[in-house]
Amino acid sequence: MYTGIVQTVAPVENVVRHDGYTTFHIRFPERLMADLQIGASVSVEGVCLSVTSMTGTDVTFDAMDATLERTNLGALKAGDHVNIERSAKPTDENGGHNIAGHVATTAELVAAKLEMPGAFIRFKVPEDWAKYIFKRGYLAVNGASLTVAEADRDVFTINLIPETLRQTTFPRYETGDFLNIEVDHQTMVMVDVVERTLERLMAKR
Fold first, then answer.
1. What is the set of domains in the chain, with CATH numbers?
2. 94 pLDDT above the threshold of 70
């Protein structure tokens, strides 16, 4: 599990394509190497990936083609940067919200202002996922725990503070790019239960 508090923005050193999967070489800061082991789970742009090798501070991750199709990792290239969060320990303070690193969908960035004052991102999600996102609700965007400021059907706006701009990859995104979205699991369960209950009640009428 993760908290959605991005610990660093790390450079992608190399991207190696294989048959059926891709290997990402990411340069970690020394402070995040402590106790890191092969097989450890790390959030990379909000996607839960496992460490496959470590050489100094060069850490590699493999992502299957299915993962690349479902997320924005397929667009990564050497020289890009990614949000990184090590998996949280049970004793860690959670300043965000519980995040699994299981991306639900990608959302198109339709507008953005990435400098202060008044920084924001606005994105459009597929209709099937819009029902799980609410004004003032939690959302993980590229692995960052954020609060929805405005909601207009399938278009949502999130306001950004200076620290979020400094500590995440959002400033590198442009209109037309895609963001990884993980909806709050409890919200999703609640919405699905209500929908199914209403369907059963309507069927009995």
1. 8-86 (2.40.30.20), 105-192 (2.40.30.20)
2. no
The DSSP line for the chain is: -B-S---EEEEEEEEEE-SSEEEEEEE--GGG-TT--TT-EEEETTEEEEEEEEETTEEEEEEEHHHHHHSSGGG--TT-EEEEEEPPPTTS--SS--B-S---EEEEEEEEE-SSSS-EEEEE--HHHHTT--TT-EEEETTEEEE--EEETTEEEEE--HHHHHHSSGGG--TT-EEEEEE-HHHHHHHHHHHHHHHHHHHH-
DSSP sequence for 121-144: EEEE--HHHHTT--TT-EEEETTE
Per-residue pLDDT reduced to its tens digit, 32-71: 999 999 999 999 999 999 999 999 999 999 999 999 999 9
Q: Which of the four pLDDT bands, split at 50, 70 and 90, describes residue 93?
A: low
Q: pTM here?
A: 0.90
The CA distance from 199 to 203, in Å, is 6
Quote the CA–CA distance of 14 and 190 in Å, as a whole number: 41
Q: What is the mean pLDDT of residues 180-204?
A: 81
Average pLDDT value for residue range 125-141: 93
